[in-house]
Design a protein that fits this description.
single chain, about 260 residues, alpha+beta, Beta-Lactamase, 10 helices
Amino acid sequence: MGLVRIVTPPGHSLELAAAVRPAAREDEIRAGLETAIMELTRSIDTVKHQAKTVTVGTSRSDSDLYDNVLVEAIRAAGADVLSLSRPVLDVLRSLAAVVMDTTGVTRYAVSWAVPAAPCTQVITKSGSAAHLPGRADIDAPLTGSKKRVVELGAPRLLRGRADGRVVIIVPERLAGTVRTISLIHVTLREAVAADVVRRAVESMGDRADEIVAAVTEIAPDFPREAVWAIHPVTLLLKPLEHVVDEALSSAKQGARNWH
């Protein structure tokens, strides 16, 4: 029989408390642990139920946040898509609706060893990007469009000035800092519903407002809703003056009655 030091309430026998058998004390501890485990388990089940309830309420509108060609492309290339922020996923969902296909992905690691001069290095290349040479195959400063995407923390659709390839650059954060960039090579759809292309353009920062302002400055009576009937590639990628030219050309050909 061992001695167990127990603090007892007033009026209880200290001798009895001190003479508790180890086996009896073990049973008491075991019972206490079982009670605690039951309480913890009940709390976890409650949280799971609440999470399920929230998921059911939002799954219909958010079902394609991860289920689209862009997220699937970077997932297949090795990205942890669950770490993507909601704003990034929203932009990818909007852009995915105007993408016909993804042809390849290049993933870059972003090094902040020198915070004032971050660098990039290729991690993997797949598909059409597999054999494309690049400055960051070994190590290169973070510059240009990739740097801008890192600064903004938002995906960006653009056409390469040198090779004309259409790509979407996706920033991936870890602990609040962009540590990886995925560059997705895409083919855009030739025909897209007006509301779909509008949402895609609206996901690109101020692009939508700039387009409407540019068109209506030259042609004040041009219906705003007619802007989104312009060819999607023009709206998404070409300079504003090209968007205005196409809008005016459509009007002159009688395609839109905006007078």
